[in-house]
Amino acid sequence: MLHEKLLKPSSIAVIGGSDHIDHIGGSVLKNLIDHGFNGQLFVVNPKRDIVQGIPSFIDVTLLPQTDLAIIAIPAKDILEVVKELVAKKETKGFIIYAAGFSELDDTGAAIEKEITELISTAGGSLLGPNNIGMINEHYAGIFTRPLPLMDKKGVDFISASGATAVFTLEAAKQIGLRFSNLFTVGNSAQIGVEDVLEHLDETFIPEESSLVKILYLEGIKNPAKLLKHALSLRQKGCDIVALKSGVTEKGNAAAASHTGAMANSDLFVQALFNKAGIIRCRSRYELITFGAILQITQLKLKNFAVITHAGGPGVIVTDTLTQNGLFVPDLDDKHQNALKQLLYPGAATANPIDILATGTAEQLEQVMVYCEDDLEEIDAMIVIFGSPGLGSVKEAYQVIHNMMQTCSKPIFPIFPSVVNVQEEINLFMQKGHMAFSDEYIFAKSLAKIMGNKTLVIEPYQNPNVNDAKIRSLINGFTDGFLGPQQANTLMELAGIHTPGQVLVKTENELFQAAKILHYPLVQKIIGPLHKSDQQGVIVNVANDVELIHNFKKLMRIDDVTGVMVQEMIKGKEVFIGAKRETGFPPLIMCGAGGIYIEALKDHQSVLAPIGKTEAIGMVSKLKIKPILEGMRGEPSSNLEAFYDAIQKVSNLLEIAPEITELDLNPLILTEQDIIAVDTRIKIEK
Ligand code: ADP
Ligand code: MG
Question: Of these four, 53, 405, 674, 685, which has the most CB atoms within 10 Å of its CB?
Answer without folding.
Answer: 674
